[in-house]
Amino acid sequence: MNHIALKMLMGDKGKYMGIVMGLTFASLIMTQQPAIFIGLMSRSYSFITDVGLSDIWVMDPKVQFVDDIKPLQDTELYRVRGISGVEWAMPMYKGLLKARLFDGRFQTCNVVGLDDATLIGGPPVMLEGKIDDLRRSDGVIVDIDGARDKLGKPSSAPGGKPIPLKVGDSLELNDRRAIVVGIAKITRTFQSQPVIYTTYSRATSYAPRERKLLSFVLVKAKKGQDLNELTRRISETTGLAAYTQAEFMTLTYEYFMDNTGIPINFGISVLLGFIVGAAIAGQTFYSFTLENLRQFGVLKAMGTGNWTLLRMILLQAVLVGSIGYGLGVGLTAIFGFAMRNTILAFKFPWQLLMFSGAGVSLICVFAALISIFKVIRLEPAIVFKG
Amino acid sequence: MNLAVRCQNVVKVYDTGEQKVTALNGINLDIAMGELMMLVGPSGCGKTTLISVIAGILDQDDGRCEVLGENLIDMRSKDKLDFRARNVGFVFQAFNLLPSLNAAENVSIPLIINGVKRAEAEHKAIDVLEHVGLGERWQSLPSQLSGGQQQRVAIARALVHSPRLIVCDEPTSALDHETGHNVMTLLKDIALHKDRTLVIVTHDARIFGFADRIAEMDDGHIIKVKGAK
Q1: B94: in domain
Q2: Is A342:A188 a contact under the CB 8 Å cutoff?
Q3: Residue B205: other Cβ atoms inside 10 A
Q4: Is residue B152 part of a domain?
Q5: In this predicted model, what pLDDT tens digit does every residue of A93-149 receive, in sequence order?
Q6: How many structural domains compose chain B?
Q7: Which stretches does DSSP call E strand in chain B?
Q8: Is B66 a domain residue?
Q9: Which residues of B touch A302 (CB under 8 A)?
Q10: B104 with B129: CB under 8 angstroms?
Q11: CB of A192 within 8 A of CB of A101?
């Protein structure tokens, strides 16, 4: 009977395509919109993930997220270094500074100061130059997206693309000269400001004079040291907040979730997509069953039981669901691939595949259930009605 | 006489909520094995309800209807499904072929319902299609066949699993006179034999001559049973 169910489904090409398209749309919108949302939210903590070597971030207890800088006294670094279980602790400066560009424009940049000796916390991928080049006089490393776009030189042709900043170019940070010694690839941040890496001492010299300038202390735990135990010890000893990398990511992520309208806006979009997709696919599948009711009646009159009819309808639902889901997810993947080098945020983790799969399954089960209900209640005597 | 169908005081009332309509009002009818019985009468007289009860796709509200020795109302629904699958063939006014299945696939459905493997069922279906003169057209979809050809496919479908009872609802009303005559000749020639009974509901007076007996119905009653010839 499975063969008959499939033939019934695919016999009406228009309806079949309609159901598949409905489910494709539902699946597309249930994956594409959350993928953008996840991409956007992951940018909120991308700076943390880009800093690879450290296990623990130490900061002022009032810090709510990674860009919420509440500077510490430099002496805090030495207090952290003195705690047992700490392999090493390095300073990091992070702050927004205005850069004066080649043509006199100003651009706010995220300036990151790395420990002068070790340069720990630097960019994950160098495209041009080496991270050690930061040791050269006035050296800074600029992220590629910033170099191409916001820090780029104006095009000679009106309306043309900016000319990317390149190694050897210079800019001014707080009236001090900075020479580009390298171009790095980093994960885009939520605010999409250009990111400029330099040494800690140089960064603090660029920054406006303040009593406290240390943004974070990056800590590496000794081998075998329990990280949760160490964070607790650091907090108790110094009175500062200490988070593992995962905890700091969660803190940042939750701040954006709780304090921005992004989750609600995307949530509405995903929910609407789900409802519209469910309505289109469910309604089309239901009307397909209604139109085939007489055929189901014939099968029932000839001796086909409700379980067999149920299995046939479920098979039809599973088939259109699988095809629609595959197409929707495929289109989302193509969209993500096409947008990989643009400013658009996009992240497609396996959990999202599961989520959209569950969503499409729910639609199919719902559509199949209301159809099955109709078929089970069907009086086979319908076949004798002209 | 070996009876295929015995109806005793069969009553069927349709309750539409607003009113009750008595479709069968104490039907008594015996149909012998090997007989071609026609049920005739005006629209709404209960003919279709009666063959639905006889075919086991509708339960009567009162009375007894034995079909091939089984009192269907006493059967569990699963047994009734099996009974229909094994013993009853259907021919409908509107053919009711599945439009996306070709002729052989349509004809093979009763065999597949009875658990025969698809390939074997389709092989046998082609054999039966040859018997009804459509052996060459087994791959055709219903939409590629004329009305008469579709009805012949439907007859093949009703015969393929060798049922002992075939119920036909207005089998010629959608066909022109000549095609209708041919369909009836076919039904009588290949469907009817001593171990199989045909019950045909019809308005079409031109085919009355094919019947062994005709039961005239009106207002839920059988008012007369007579021999056709």
Answers
A1: yes
A2: no
A3: 8
A4: yes
A5: 999 888 888 777 888 899 999 999 899 888 888 999 999 999 888 999 999 988 888
A6: 1
A7: 3-15, 20-32, 36-40, 62-67, 70-71, 88-91, 165-169, 197-201, 213-218, 221-227
A8: no
A9: 84-85, 88, 90, 109-110, 113
A10: yes
A11: no
3-class state of residue A243 by DSSP: strand
Closest Cα in chain B to A309: B113
Which member of A295, A303, A386 has the closest CB to residue B113? A303
Q: What tokens were used for A382?
A: 């319908």
| CA distance to A271, A298, B57, per residue, from A378 (Å) | 34, 11, 11
Computed on alpha carbons and rounded to an integer, the radius of gyration of chain A in Å comes to: 29
Interchain contact, A384 vs B81, CB within 8 Å: no
Gap from A378 CA to chain B (nearest CA, Å):
11
Q: Which residues pair with B6 in a beta bridge?
A: B30, B66
Residue A103's pLDDT is 76
Task: Determine the Cα angle at A116 with ends A114 and A121, to 5°.
Answer: 25
Strands B88-91 and B3-15: unpaired
Q: Tell me: ipTM over 0.90.
A: no
Domain, as residue range, for B112: 36-45+76-227
Instruction: Identify the closest residue of chain A to B53 by CA–CA distance.
Output: A381
Cβ-based contacts of A295 with chain B (< 8 Å)? 96, 98
CA angle B104, B105, B110 (to 5 degrees): 105
Q: Cα separation of B208 and B39, whole Å?
A: 10
pLDDT at residue B108, rounded to an integer: 92
10-residue mean pLDDT series, chain B (229 residues): 86 84 88 89 88 88 88 85 89 85 92 90 88 82 87 87 88 77 79 84 85 89 78
- The distance in angstroms from the start CA to the end CA of chain B is 20
Distance from CA of A252 to the nearest CA of B (A): 57
The residue assigned the tokens 């079409």 is B204
Cβ distance B169 to A294 less than 8 Å, yes or no, reads: no
To which residue do tokens 């104006």 refer?
A154
Backbone angles phi, psi at A340, to 5 degrees: -65, -25
* Nearest chain A residue (CA) to B58: A381
- With a cut of 70, which residues of chain A have pLDDT below it? 385-386
Domain CATH code at residue B193: 3.40.50.300
**Under 8 Å between Cβ of B128 and B156:** yes
The reply to whether residue B113 touches residue A380, judged by beta carbons under 8 angstroms, is: no
**Mutation site, A8, A288, A294, A302, interface B, largest B CB count within 10 A:** A302
Q: Is residue B200 part of a domain?
A: yes
What's the gap in Å between the CA of A14 and the closest CA on chain B? 13
Beta-carbon pairs below 8 A across chains A and B: 82
A4 part of contact set with chain B, CB < 8 Å: yes
pLDDT of residue A272: 82
Report the alpha-carbon distance of residue A351 to residue A91 in Å, rounded.
35
Interface test with A, best of B76, B81, B83, B199 (most A CBs within 10 A): B81
Contact criterion met (CB < 8 Å) for A302 and B109: yes
pLDDT of residue A385: 67
